Amino acid sequence: MAPLLEARRLAKNYGTLRAVEEVSLSLEPGEILGLLGPNGAGKTTTVSMIAGLLAPDGGEVLLMGRPPSTNGAAKRALGLVPQDLALFDGLTAEANLRLFGALYGLGGPGLDRAVKEGLAFVGLSERASSRVKSFSGGMKRRLNLAAGLLHDPSVLLLDEPTVGVDPQSRNAIFDVLEDLRSRGKAILYTTHYMEEAERLCSRIVIMDHGRVLAEGTAPELASRLPHPTRLVAELRGGGDGEGWIGEVGKLPGFSRVSIEGGRLGATVENLAEGTSALLAFIASRGLELASLETQRPDLETVFLALTGRELRDA
Amino acid sequence: MMRALRALVRKDLTLFFEDRRAVVLSFAAPIAIGAFFGFLFSGGGGGNAKIPVRVADLDGSSVSRAIVAALEKDKALEVKSATSADEARELVRRGKATAAVILPKSFGEEAVNAFFRQTDKPDLLLLRDPSHTAEAGMLRGILTQHVMEVVSKEAFSGPAGLRSARQALRQVSEDKAMAPSDRKDLTVLLQSVVNLQEHSTSEKTEALGPQGGIGVPYDTKEEEVTAHAGETYNGYAHSFGGMALQFILMASIEFGMGILIERRTGIWKRLLAAPLHRSTLLLARGISGALISLAIFLVCMGFGMAVFGVRVQGSWPGFLLLAVAYALMASAFGLLLAALGRTPEATRGLAVFAVLILVMLGGAWVPAFIFPAWLQKATLLLPTRWAMDALDGVTWRGLGLASALPAVAILLGFTFVFALIAAWKFPSEEG
Ligand SMILES: Nc1ncnc2c1ncn2[C@@H]1O[C@H](COP(=O)(O)OP(=O)(O)O)[C@@H](O)[C@H]1O
Ligand SMILES: [Mg+2]
User: Fold this and answer.
1) Which domains does chain A have, with CATH numbers?
2) pLDDT tens per residue across span A197-251
3) Test site for ligand 1: of A35, A44, A157, A191, most ligand atoms within 8 A of the Cβ
4) A74-78, A262-266, B143-147, B411-415: which is most confident
5) Alpha-carbon gap, residue B378 to B389, rounded angstroms
């Protein structure tokens, strides 16, 4: 059976800039697909093409195996939450939701119910009649999310829905998304935060410079790395590495060396060789080893390996 | 403190001069508008328009014909004839002529008679457009000059003058009430006129004009041509109409900028993601823009009516149709700005400049009849000019529905063209 939503070899150029090249992805009900990439990777452009706001220069979007109809049924099946806040500041939260519900043909008791549930869903029932301009960034983000859910779409396109929010609002948004997933919604989740993708998404597509670099679950992506291991050693008596941390970086196969609160971290090319080299170094320095653990590589490591850049500085 | 102050001022200046377009406008707008009014009030650019005057000669005497000929020759006037006072009055009411001069039956004879004796002066009827006060003053002077010239020439050299002088001589000698010295002087004067007339046609005698009991040989009856006889002119009708037209366009700019701002935020994306056609969104914008414009118009004119006695003396349906057509045009103008503009910052200044020029040349600030003739013609390309003239028509001029319809049609035409360009140029994609 065809996936609920499929994008095939999407491409978009802005002048000579190839913003998106050959991006393919598919999405099933009850799944959160992470679209992960640094700023400028082409995530928003991809989402806009899927939402029908941009005409692709190449490739196609399929909804339930067919090109999106032009009669509005396809648009009704999609719920878009734009990256930039899409709310009328001068209107109340409730008035905003009523407007966006009406755009999808909701009215009467159906609209009343959808607005009420939407506000409750994102925890804004008590602020229903406050103007949006009085909201905090996190509250606006939650309302922005609610506005995309009103018409109960089966596919949700979320473009960086947690940018600039406080941890509390972020957790609230995550709870909402997990709830939606459990109700069988298909969710495309765009982000440049590793932790979010790792925590939330069943599968992840990594993008950079308009291209898909890798796709899979977080463990799958990690296992594909040639140099997958990170060592973390808790040391006593070495302070924060004054005078010797540089030497750790020079050990053969060591990279991304860090130290914080006596916890030394390093990525090694080979677990066995790396571990013995580190232990030898610790002994030679007369440091006391309190604990030693190995970590599976995180997405940060994956991204670094794929692009040679750290995601955060990208 | 000084360092911070200097840095802050430098920052402001840098930012201001960074925006080239805003800079150009800040300097170009006052220069353009200042130059325009200077040009207007210094009579530059090929001279002012001639005052259009209708003359109805109901007398047909040699005197009245000579007066008409003199008026026609006058460089300040553009004289056309009218067959009756009523026809002339209607033309003034429609704004086709600034004034009309009616020379009543036997004006010539009575004026020549009255030239020597300040009794039984004939009435010259001057019908004038009350919004043209300056021209009326000028016209009064020109009229006096020409009528005096013709009548005095006739009095001293024409057959009517001879008759009249003899008759006056007789009356003076019979007038018991006149002081003997006056009678003697007047007799000498009139006798010499008669003598002069009898053997010469010298024109030097005109120099006698101002002497003795001789004076302006007619009375001017002036009538302001407004909606109804006896109605006085209300200058607020024009000024409120003009300002309503201007500020409706200003509001339309803000409306167009609102769309540009929405496009910059995610709102426009969300609107376009909904199962609606782009044209529905634009249409909705057009309707709300028109409603706001209409509200501005009605509130502004309503205030003028309530407080300053502005009245729709002519056609109410015409007035309302104009209001609706102008509101639609303004709204479509806002959409056009939103379609052609890139950013609100870059578009706003240019749009404000365009609106100022539109309303200035439309005659909303000073009536268009002050413009030189060529400019009066040229500004007929502007929707504001049509709206302003038609609005004057249905308010204080008291014109009927038919007078407003051409302007309504033209405004709707502009609406259509603006909307078409807006729909065509409005970006179809939202990245
Ligand atoms: N409307 C546009 N015109 C020109 N370039 C654009 C436009 N929108 C995006 N881009 C460029 O396309 C690339 C991808 O942008 P975007 O899809 O917004 O990336 P992301 O959402 O991953 O941050 C960037 O280099 C961006 O500068
Ligand atoms: Mg983006």
Assistant:
1) 5-223 (3.40.50.300), 229-296 (3.30.70)
2) 888 999 999 999 999 998 999 888 877 766 557 888 998 887 787 888 888 889 9
3) A44
4) B411-415
5) 14
pLDDT tens per residue, range B319-340: 999 999 999 999 999 999 999 9
Collapsing DSSP states into helix, strand and coil, what is residue A60?
strand
Which ligand 1 atom sits nearest the alpha carbon of residue A12?
A: 12
Tokens matching residue B174:
């019979």
Mean pLDDT within A108-116: 94
- CB contacts of A83 in chain B (<8 Å) are 266
With 0-12 / 13-18 / 19 or more C-beta atoms within 10 angstroms meaning exposed / middle / buried, residue A27 is: buried
Instruction: Give the closest-approach CA distance of A108 to chain B in angstroms.
Output: 19
Pocket test for ligand 1, best of A17, A47, A81, A207 (most atoms within 8 A of CB): A17
Please name the residue whose Cα sits nearest to atom 16 of ligand 1. Answer: A42
Contacts with B275 from chain A: Cβ below 8 Å: 71-73, 75-76, 103-105
Place of tokens 């302007």: B407
What does pTM read for this prediction? 0.72
- What's the mean pLDDT in A56-64? 92
Structural domain spans, chain B: 51-224, 233-430
CB contact under 8 A, A53 and B274: no
| A103 touches B at CB < 8 Å | yes
CATH superfamily of B51-224: abc type-2 transporter like domain (3.40.1710.10)
Cβ pair B266:A86 closer than 8 A: yes
State the closest ligand 1 atom to the C-alpha of A83, by its place in the atom list counted from 1. Answer: 21
Q: Do B270 and A53 touch (CB under 8 A)?
A: no
What is the least distance, in Å, from the CA of B8 to any CA of chain A? 29
Model confidence at B390, in pLDDT bands (50, 70, 90)?
very high
pLDDT at A311: 61
Q: For residue A68, which amino acid is it?
A: P
**Cα end-to-end distance, chain B, whole Å:** 45
Chain segment B153-166, per-residue pLDDT in tens: 777 776 767 777 77
